Amino acid sequence: MPTIRIKYAPGAVSAVHNADNFLKTLDYMLGLCYYTVYKCDFIKKCSSPVYGFGMYGKEETEMKRKIYLSSPCMCGEEQKYVREAFDTNWIAPLGKNVNEFENTIKEYIGAKGAVAMNAGTAAIHMALRALGVGSGDIVFCQSMTFSASANPIIYENGIPVFIDSEPDTWNMSPNALRKAFEKYPHPKAVIVVHLYGTPAKMDEIAEICNEHNVPLVEDAAEGLGGEYKGKKLGSLGKYGILSFNGNKIITTSGGGMLVGNDEAMLQTVLKWITQSREPARWYQHEELGYNYRMSNIVAGIGRGQMTALEDHVSQKTNIYNKYKEAFADMPITMQPHEADTKPNHWLSAATIDKGCNISPFTIMDRLAEENVETRPIWKPMHMQPFYKDCDYFAHNDDGTSISEDIFARGLCLPSDFYPQMKPEEHDEIIDIIKRCF
Known about the structure:
The chain folds into 3 domains: 5-63, no CATH class; 81-306, 3-Layer(aba) Sandwich (Aspartate Aminotransferase, domain 2); 309-435, Aspartate Aminotransferase, domain 1. Helix 7 links the parallel strand 8 (189-193) and strand 9 (216-219). The two termini are 40 Å apart. It has an 8-stranded mixed β-sheet, sandwiched between helices. It has a 4-stranded antiparallel β-sheet with strand order 1-3-4-2, covered by helices on one side. It has a 4-stranded antiparallel β-sheet with strand order 14-16-19-17. The protein has 13 helices and 19 strands. By secondary structure, it is an alpha/beta fold. The longest helix is centred in the last third of the chain and has 18 residues, at 309-326. Helix 2 (78-87) packs antiparallel against helix 9 (296-306) and helix 3 (96-109) packs parallel to helix 9 (296-306). The chain has helices at 19-25, 78-87, 96-109, 120-130, 151-155, 174-183, 202-211, 263-272, 296-306, 309-326, 360-369, 402-409, 423-435; strands at 5-8, 14-16, 33-40, 50-56, 113-117, 138-142, 159-163, 189-193, 216-219, 227-228, 231-232, 239-243, 256-260, 332-334, 341-342, 348-352, 375-376, 392-393, 410-413.
């Protein structure tokens, strides 16, 4: 098939039906990267061939094809809803796609309400605002996470207190959480994270929070499609947070959602994120508002993506299992999870065993030489310069930190969908890693 070079919005790889129509639909997203269109037929749900867009910089077209850590995967249904937004001229931050995307998510999660926003960070911010977090309020937050979990605490002038991980899932340590409550018995909220889509120990964490009558915010930004004891991630706290960033298990290019069962408060949140406009004939504002609402265009992408969510989780799980099997006899340990949980395996993460003379950066550098993207484990928030003065509670009674150890020995392995990472390329990546030892 001849190569077609086009200009398209910067980002990672996606796959769609009917390349010509898709390009016309998304022509408004002109960017600076050149793309190559290639034919493939990897998506089971598609009855006709699929066309994939692989991102290449000007100089990359003459290099070995880059393998990304985790890039978008379009199933072909997205353009139908995007086209609908254009055809009906609903391209603003309201419309049928937004409403239907919210309905689809809340039904999938099992929540009574959902509010679509332009980022998962915005959803965390609004969850904290809904819980009344204000100046000087303590908020407990998992330390091993992306900064977006913690930054909204600062937005509301709260005080973050960071909680270490436990070794069984790499998520918030119930032991460290109890220590934090001993010193700070009345925090305003607790933010737990499902790291890389692996469920935290929610029963133990919720029990501790209930003992102190403190609401739990469930940051499931990385966890959509995962389950904890049969319940969907995002449904286990007072509020659940979802992210649809470009590299997540499903994407809207950028976006997030707040889910929960307090429908009245979610309606208030909806008002806040649309600039707190009052129901008057003129523009009346009686409280601070925000411009956080999701657009009808990107919500259309989300509607299409939801039709492929289970297939995405299956693919990511197969990638994780392939790594785990390949490294069974090596000093590499994949991120663990509890037996009665179902991770979505958004990213396949691993640690190098203690005592091994190989650094994660040895592997990352070697793969980079082959144009393969990897990433260090999230650097814990209590180690970040911005948060260096915040209090922190370690899992171990001797004060040693689990999250610091995981950060020092860990890395995220290429976890891209097929064919963006072809099976033979996945095999080659595994071989390169093995040769590092």
